[in-house]
Predict the structure.
Amino acid sequence: MLDEHVALVIGGGRGIGAATSVLLGRLGASVAIAARTGSEVSRVSELVRAEGGTAMPWTVDVRRPEQVQQMADQVLRKFGRLDHVVHCPGYLPDPDFVWDVDPHQLRAALDVNVLGPVLVARHVVPIMLEQGAGNLVFVSSALSSRAVPGLGAYAASRAAENVLVRTLAAEVRGSGVRVDVFIPPATDTDALRQFRAALAGRGAPVSAMAAKDPDDVAEAIVRLCLPGSWRRADGAGSRAGYGPSFPGNQRPVRRHPW
Ligand SMILES: NC(=O)c1ccc[n+]([C@@H]2O[C@H](COP(=O)([O-])OP(=O)(O)OC[C@H]3O[C@@H](n4cnc5c(N)ncnc54)[C@H](OP(=O)(O)O)[C@@H]3O)[C@@H](O)[C@H]2O)c1
């Protein structure tokens, strides 16, 4: 379905990003899998290759402009194009009431959740504009629009991310590049376990809601990459007769379907 497509999953070493990488590879895309921990991106690359797919592990810290640039350059050099970018990194500051927020924690959240997406956009959007096609999905959080005591710093960083991404979507409208914010449900990953433990450690109420399987969440993300939802300007992998090359950035915030 995604034969000849090239995908870059940032934060693909574990959790939702890892599941998304494996699914993209299974559907035929060549997948570059990036995160800071080399052993994790190598492990996920092996999973993709074990199913007959093509994978490229890459270590990157999205807070480092030169590393993000090298990653984009390297993916382009190796695969010759870049059709999909799924951005998964997130930083959750220690839960604290707003008047107690540690400035270092807030800066750390802004670095990963706001600066990271901006740097990624800086280095991948020009590639996609040049191609006249591309698909960017930024994984954010439902907390971005909620006022939950103790989670203000995280929510504020995610709200800033969403506004930036929606602005980006408006800026590239009509170019063939599509940009989405994806809001996942509670998903059974290391990050959720740490989040719930941090809340419990502060005596805050912890949701007992069952978490979704990362594979199911990956399916919802990958749906945004499928022909019909998205298609390449050169038509590769596209569904005949689907209409205009791109549906356009009509719905820049995609909620999970549950
Ligand atoms: N799980 C949930 O219930 C849930 C709910 C709502 C929103 N989300 C959001 O969805 C996204 C994925 O969640 P997840 O649960 O799959 O998280 P996860 O298991 O912690 O995975 C995050 C991935 O991002 C990478 N990463 C973190 N910081 C990075 C950085 N500075 N540069 C490059 N890569 C970085 C991590 O690898 P390294 O540490 O090796 O870099 C890892 O591969 C996150 O943004 C999270 O906040 C999750």
Notes: The chain has seven helices and seven strands. Strands lie at 6-10, 30-35, 55-59, 84-87, 134-139, 177-183, 253-255.
